[in-house]
């Protein structure tokens, strides 16, 4: 595999645990709104506050969305799955146990393919449904830090919101592959519509299990767990830092200790965390308050049939249409941009031409404006009007950029209208171009002499002068041909 | 199967997980009680159930799911009414890991 992390005879072994917050309307086991950013403790009830006697009832939509994600990850969806209690004491868990799944998860044994250069597959161990914990607001001390804090306030709005935990086998062999995998996984979940997967808001969180082993070894080394890396870049850098740390230990003849680590992106350092339950004895047992979840094979087949085009399939379709891998990968992972591209390509009738516009002018405009593709005033319909004028030879590339800018600035403008209004139609007519060329040659006798003396590169300067004289509207190809004809006459 | 006996160390381990501090007399008494309970479970294990499929619920599994419809939560004042140490916006808890 290309891109594998290998140093001093050791290779990286990485597995991920990904938490995806599902975007259901209500929480996992009660009807409280599942909403981010509300005033603390305003979306709470007797169930998610764990009042005695309050009983959970599982959310059908959370089960359905989890099954859709599982199907997209190639998982087997067992006919029956079961909720279990995971016991631990912490103020973010009001029941003193979390309802999760243990030996009968909703989704089992999948595989996820990451295409492109250095393509690889990652086995999915399982994907199970559980409830999220409450949020701790730590007063005093450093923001977010637990040690030295002067007490905490608990916000239960997040408590009981549905989480899908996706666990991979340790199949990743480099920090870069971990990032690639997570990027594509995120795009897949977003395409399905099960979550917005916003790492900043915490609706996508990733932990990494990291170890190294001698190249060629089949056994795994001692692993450490990197917690909650909240961006793709930090995930990659955190794993990289941990691999280097472990390599340093091993080369110094020391042992890697199994522990949970926190990566500080500011310093690049790794610190050991106190674990929630030091004994790691969660005493799972089947949740008596919830019935097992039954999955009907016919329903699952229907769900599988209703999945949208997934990024991996889109990548294959776009590379099949002749687009470069980098372009296809970007379009595969960005849902809005892909929808825009598909719309434009359908109108333009040429995949490569459409891709060039999307990757060029459109991307530059979106980046500059800081918006996503479905927010731009330059709709695929309006851009298609512009592309048609370029393809037909009505305007050249220089004018096309000007027209694009005009479409950005005036949402009511059409490409044809701008071209007509500003007189941007290409000058390709031999008489008109000839007059421009003659005038420029007459104005630059030295350059003409130089060209005829063998300095052919001077022609570039003369083309520029002619283009300028045409107000940027000259048909570049016709102009070149005409200029060479006159110079060599 | 009826000879399962919890050792004092096992009792202390379970107590530690439950955040219970036990003195030696309590360890001895609870060890006896837990052993008796496990013995009772072992009585059940002696039943001829080889042909009964394992289950964790008495009910055959069915659709005990609810539709994904949200309704407003409790008013915050009500939610905080029984908090031992309420803050204006939430439940205050002692410092952790101190």
Short précis:
With 489 residues, chain A is α+β, with helices and mostly antiparallel strands. Chain A is 39% helix and 19% strand.
**What Rg of chain A do the Cα atoms give?**
30 Å
Question: What is the percent of helical residues of chain B?
Answer: 25-40%
Main sheet of chain B? Answer: none
Unreliable stretches covering 5 or more consecutive residues of chain B:
none
Report the C-alpha radius of gyration of chain B, rounded: 22 Å
How much of the sequence lies in strands of chain B comes to: 5-15%
Biggest β-sheet strands, sense, barrel of chain A: 9 strands, mixed
Q: What's the helix count of chain A?
A: 15
CATH superfamily of the domain at 1-47 in chain B: Glu-tRNAGln amidotransferase C subunit, N-terminal domain
Instruction: Point out poorly predicted stretches of chain A.
Output: 141-148
The protein's oligomeric status is heterodimer
**CATH fold descriptor of the domain at 1-47 in chain B:** Histone, subunit A
If classified by CATH, what would the architecture of the domain at 1-47 in chain B be? Orthogonal Bundle
Structural class of chain B: mainly alpha
How many DSSP E strands of chain A?
A: 17
Shape designation of chain B: flat
Largest interface: A-B, 55 and 35 residues
End-to-end Cα distance of chain A: 58 Å
Q: What is the percent of helical residues of chain A? A: 25-40%
């Amino acid at each position: 595999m290309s891109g594998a992390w290998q140093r001093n005879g050791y290779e990286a072994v990485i597995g991920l645990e990904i938490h995806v917050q599902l975007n259901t309307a209500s929480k996992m086991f009660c009807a409280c709104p599942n909403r981010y950013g509300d005033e603390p403790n305003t979306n709470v009830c007797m169930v998610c506050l764990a009042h005695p006697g309050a009983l959970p009832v599982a959310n059908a939509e959370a089960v359905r969305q989890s099954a859709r994600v599982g199907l997209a990850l190639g998982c087997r969806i067992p006919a029956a799955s079961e909720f279990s209690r995971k016991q631990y004491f912490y103020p973010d868990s009001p029941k003193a146990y979390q309802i999760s799944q243990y030996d009968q998860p909703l989704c089992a044994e999948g595989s996820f393919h990451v295409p492109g250069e250095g393509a690889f597959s990652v086995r999915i161990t399982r994907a199970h449904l559980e409830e999220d914990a409450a949020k701790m607001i730590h007063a005093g001390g450093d923001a977010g830090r637990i040690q030295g804090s002067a007490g905490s306030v608990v916000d239960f709005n997040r408590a009981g919101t549905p989480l899908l935990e996706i666990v991979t086998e340790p199949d990743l062999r480099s920090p870069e592959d971990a990032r690639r995998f997570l990027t594509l996984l995120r795009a897949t979940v977003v395409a399905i519509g099960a979550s917005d997967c916003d790492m900043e808001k915490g609706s996508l969180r990733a932990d990494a299990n990291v170890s190294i082993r001698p190249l060629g070894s089949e056994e795994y080394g001692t692993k450490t767990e990197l917690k909650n890396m909240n961006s793709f870049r930090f995930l990659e850098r955190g794993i990289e830092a941990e691999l280097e740390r472990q390599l340093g230990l091993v080369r110094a003849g020391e042992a890697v200790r199994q522990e949970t680590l926190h990566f500080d992106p500011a310093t690049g350092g790794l610190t050991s965390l106190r674990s929630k339950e030091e004994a790691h004895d969660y005493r799972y047992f089947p949740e008596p308050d919830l019935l097992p979840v039954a999955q009907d094979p016919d329903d699952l087949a229907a769900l599988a049939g209703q999945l949208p085009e997934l990024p991996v399939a889109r990548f294959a379709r776009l590379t099949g249409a002749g687009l470069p891998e980098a372009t296809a990968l970007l379009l595969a992972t960005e849902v809005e941009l892909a929808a825009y591209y598909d719309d434009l390509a359908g109108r333009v009738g040429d995949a490569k031409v459409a891709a060039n516009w999307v990757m060029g002018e459109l991307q530059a405009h979106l980046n500059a404006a800081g918006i996503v593709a479905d927010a731009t005033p330059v709709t695929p319909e309006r851009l298609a009007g512009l592309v048609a004028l370029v393809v037909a030879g009505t305007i050249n590339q220089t004018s096309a950029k000007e027209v694009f800018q005009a479409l950005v600035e005036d949402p009511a403008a059409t490409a044809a209208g701008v071209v007509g209004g500003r007189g941007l139609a290409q000058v390709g007519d031999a008489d008109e171009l000839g007059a421009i060329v003659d005038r420029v040659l007459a104005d630059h006798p030295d350059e003409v002499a130089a060209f005829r003396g063998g300095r052919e590169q001077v022609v570039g300067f003369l083309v520029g002068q002619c283009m300028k004289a045409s107000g940027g509207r000259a048909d570049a190809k016709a102009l070149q041909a005409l200029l060479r004809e006159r110079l060599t006459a | 199967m009826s000879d399962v006996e919890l050792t004092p160390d096992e009792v202390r381990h379970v107590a530690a997980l439950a955040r219970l501090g036990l003195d030696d007399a309590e360890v001895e008494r609870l060890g006896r009680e837990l052993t008796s309970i496990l013995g009772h479970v072992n009585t059940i294990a002696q039943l001829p159930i080889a042909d009964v499929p394992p289950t964790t619920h008495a009910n055959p599994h069915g659709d005990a799911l609810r539709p994904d419809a949200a309704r407003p939560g409790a008013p915050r004042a009500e939610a905080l009414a029984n908090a031992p140490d309420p803050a204006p916006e939430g439940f205050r808890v002692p410092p952790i890991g101190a």
